[in-house]
Design goal:
It contains three helices and six strands; from the N terminus they run ααββαββββ. The protein has 123 residues and is α+β, with helices and mostly antiparallel strands. A six-stranded mixed beta sheet has the order 2-1-6-5-4-3. 16% of the residues are buried.
């Protein structure tokens, strides 16, 4: 895995999240995916994908500040996401830091874990 390959996967993941593309999310995530949501809830693959099935709508979602580290058979990404989301008619602008773990599984590279932490607003 190279930095460019991981950046492409991160872009595909972000596009799928922004566009609520459940099929692409299903393809990118490992069946053994585990994660932690912005609210601290544990997620498996099904619950992660379910979160993108229409209960909210992204108006904007961008990723930045990617720091990619490669190990034997897996890569970690520490990044920042900036987003605007509509929930129940209310628009929320926020940002978060996240860690994604991508693993080479045979021919494919799959997302096996993701943890998101909201950034606190400066006072």
């Amino acid at each position: 895995m190279t930095d460019d390959e991981i950046k492409l996967l991160e872009t595909q993941l972000t596009d799928a999240e922004r566009n609520m593309d459940v099929a692409t999310l299903h393809h990118l995530l490992s069946d053994r995916f585990t994660g932690v949501s912005m609210k601290g809830h544990s997620l498996d693959k099904a619950s992660f994908i379910e979160a993108f099935s229409g209960s909210f709508k992204f108006e904007a979602l961008e990723i930045e500040d990617l720091n990619i580290t490669h190990f034997n058979g897996f890569s970690t990404v520490v990044g920042r996401s900036v987003f605007e989301v509509e929930i129940g008619g209310n628009r929320i602008q926020a940002s978060a830091r996240y860690v994604d773990v991508w693993v080479q599984t045979g021919e494919a590279v799959k997302l096996v874990s993701s943890s998101v932490t909201p950034e606190k607003k400066e006072r």
